[in-house]
Design goal:
By secondary structure, the chain is mostly helical. Helices cover 45% and strands 0% of the residues. The protein is built from 6 helices and no strands. The longest helix is centred in the C-terminal third of the chain and has 17 residues. One of its GO terms (molecular function) is ATP binding.
Amino acid sequence: RVRYHCVLGLTATLLREDGTIGSLRHLVGPKLYEANWMELTASGHLATVHCVEVRCPTPPPYVAAYAQCKARSGVRTDIEALNPHKLWCTQALLHYHTAVKRPADKVIIFCDSTHAVRRYARLLGVPFME
């Protein structure tokens, strides 16, 4: 059961890694509008995308715990998300985009784990949505 009066779903694609694409229509209703991203970028509505890959090492205790978990388990997802090196990188990126860069950027941090996103929000001092 959805606990909200209104749900707005914004997505770049109708693809989901968790295989729950079928539930989107039930949760947020049918797609109402679709826009071409190249037209939106050309008209100034979307920022130019700059992709950067950041590789974070995994501490040995996390590697050991990860190896003992069943594939696709919630615990495994939390171990992946709560890697302290990922938290540090997230903190550094958040600081750069909100405190160093001018004008400051608006930032959204996505995470596959509700447990992990709560912890990130608490440690980074930012609000979160489930």
